[in-house]
Amino acid sequence: MLPPQPPTTNDRWKDINLPTVSWGPLDVVIAATVTMLVVISILSLGGSYGTDVGYNTTVNSPSGYYVGLLATALGLVLLRLFRYPLWPIVAALVAGVGVTAVSYQFGHDIGNGTAEFVGVPVGIIAATAMSGAFAATGIAFSVVRYREPFAALGFVKTNGIKPYLFAVAMWLVGLSILMFWVQALYWFGVDSLAPPDTAQKALDEAGGSIVVTIVLVGILGPIAEEIFFRGYVLPGLVRKFGIGWALLLSSVMFGLFHIDLGAIVPTFALGLALGWVYLKTGSIWPAMFAHGLHNTVAVLVAKYLTTA
Question: What residue spans define the domains of the chain?
Answer without folding.
Answer: 21-148, 152-308
